[in-house]
Specification:
Low-confidence stretches of chain A: none
Radius of gyration of chain A: 26 Å
CATH superfamily of the largest domain in chain A: Response regulator
Mean pLDDT of chain A: 94
Oligomer: homodimer
Strand content of chain A: 5-15%
Shape of chain A: elongated
Number of strands of chain A: 12
Chain lengths: 344, 344
DNA sequence: TTGAAAGCGCTAACAG
DNA sequence: CTGTTAGCGCTTTCAA
């Protein structure tokens, strides 16, 4: 039950060759005879030889591994991004190490250390919502490890080897509101999360701008700010329906609260979209299960993961010599018009 | 812009100590004076020293890393399990490497190789649905790397260092059907996926057994086999409602098809649960968004991840000396009774 | 309490 | 085309 794994030295001894030749044969180096390569490969197969990446990495100074650091792997969004990252990374030949900060800065710091210790070649991170300083990312920058922020970025944290991939919330929201206006809505309500978060800020600003651009008035009664979930969405909708002039359209910055609104509207025997058109945001899976199916904005979360890896790859290739950091990538949203907002 | 990272040798030189002392100090070894430890730690902090895990792993013969291999990181289930794994692994001090097979045996083989190359200390795997041979797992067994199958297991693949964590589908399904009977249902339909998959087989068998145990007849008209999604669920429900004696209860082996059924029943102006009670399976997020809210079975997916890691840990600790493999873990289901099946 | 020395498995000059 | 040599950064005897 000894089970030491076969090593290059073992192969070398068995075949009466030198380790270097074995190494070269295995990596299909040009200057090894085909005959030798064949013998080596055959024996390697036989002995189930597996190259030791730890050793190779140590020697080469490259671990072949990238790190992901996300707040958590739950909900709809992060799993999708992780999926995108893992898929693209595999394609490019990287191993992927994954950590969760649990929305906690302290954890985030520890995880960054872990990844750095593991000698990852680059880090993809979406920061915890409690993160308010850069100290831990400082080390990453100092060691010149490429760093890509996605979705939740630290806007003040710049560097020659730092970049980001974000979603164009403003444009997404603007499209939604324009669409509702095109459908004939003139009193459009907005459900927004707290404005200190960028995503909410941008989406809300787009709402205001789109109304103004189309010559519609801004009405404070039509704006509700709360933690965006189903229950609160339902509650907000009930309030709106009590207004003397009820809204004829709702733009919810989140799908859950849109569902809450939808249910309330239906319960009041109003028709969606004829009486009230509703559009959510994020294209969560359940939006295609509602009746009527919910219009929403697709964030193309997997694209985000893919783009992040590609950005990293680019930074890795260009090397630290190239100065300016790669431009941030801004992913364009895609409005999905479904039954809940399609009048006609 | 040189940026070579600080190494133990660097610390040693700066402090006029030997590398061994530094190493010992950093790992808080007993026989290093507190004074020295302090100096070492201080300098390490100052230089942002990060231990090189590749080197340490190589030397120790332990990488401190476990591998996850899943079919994909999409949907509701696998992300939850991965979350459970990552959380528990972090707690136990393991790094986590993650791979996706994309339901493809060939990919699965490659990924197993990757993980083995990366010198993972153990592998947690849910096999691709195309996997029909063990060859790639053979290597894992041979190298005595602990292997834990979860959810999708290879039942014929035994070994002294192989175990599994599965969900008790039979009991979950049995509970569902018993519950429906208690609610007064006497004509209970069942939506099932293809029976060559274990999960479907067990759930269906439990359906049959529970009916029989309660003295209810088995009626072929009430059983529908199809790929479990919303559309097919709706279609199946429409067929059922055409029967002379329509069902008064539906057990769907999957939440999506249950939603499909729910929508059709409502569209026919029948009441849920009074006319037709409906129960799904898996406790997907959207089940609490429907009207009425859908009863279902919680699989405690995160528990599964946690249990898998703990099992791995146990195998790692007991070492290859202990013969018999740890007993498989069978997770108990939890029936969630919600509005769609709660009469009264 | 500290140091010297060896080596984990691999690769990459440099020689032949 | 193949071999020799050295060393990546760390840990661990063994010796002082």
């Amino acid at each position: 039950m000894a089970n030491r794994r076969a090593s290059i030295t073992d192969l070398a001894k068995t075949l009466g060759l030198s380790p270097s030749t074995i190494s070269r044969a295995l990596s299909n180096h040009d200057d090894v005879s085909e005959a030798t390569k064949l013998r080596v490969r055959q024996l390697a197969d036989e002995l189930h030889y597996k190259p030791n990446q730890l050793a190779a990495g140590l020697r080469r100074g490259r671990s072949n591994t990238v790190g992901i650091l996300v707040p958590h792997i739950t909900g709809d969004f992060f799993p999708k991004v992780v999926h995108g990252i893992a898929t693209e990374a595999a394609k490019l030949g990287f191993n992927v190490m994954i950590c969760q900060s649990n929305e906690d800065v302290r954890q985030e710091q520890l995880n960054i250390d872990l990844l750095l210790n593991a000698q990852v070649e680059g880090i993809l991170v979406s920061v915890a919502n409690t993160t308010d300083n850069f100290r831990h990312f400082e080390d990453v920058r100092q060691q010149n490890i490429p760093l890509v922020f996605f979705d939740r970025v630290m806007e003040d944290f710049q560097g020659s080897n730092v970049s980001s991939v974000v979603f164009d919330d403003y444009q997404g929201a603007y499209q939604v509101v324009s669409h509702l206006i095109e459908q004939g809505c003139t009193r459009i309500a907005h459900f927004s999360g707290p404005l200190h978060l960028n995503i909410n800020k941008y989406r809300h600003q787009a709402y205001l701008d789109a109304l103004t651009a189309h010559g519609l008035p801004i009405d404070d009664d039509l704006m509700a700010f709360f933690e965006l979930n189903q229950k609160n969405g339902a509650h907000a909708m009930r309030q709106l329906l009590k207004l003397r002039q009820r809204p004829d359209g709702v733009f919810s910055s989140n799908d859950l609260s849109a569902v809450g609104a939808l249910q309330v509207v239906k319960a009041h025997r109003l028709r969606v979209p004829q009486d009230v058109a509703i559009v959510g945001f994020s294209n969560e899976m359940f939006t295609s299960l509602t009746e009527p199916m919910l219009s929403t904005v697709d964030q193309r979360s997997e694209q985000m993961g893919k783009a992040a890896v590609q950005l990293l790859q680019k930074m890795l290739k260009s090397g630290p010599k190239s100065q300016g950091p790669p431009k941030p990538i801004v992913l364009k949203p895609k409005l999905l018009i479904r039954e809940s907002s399609q009048r006609r």
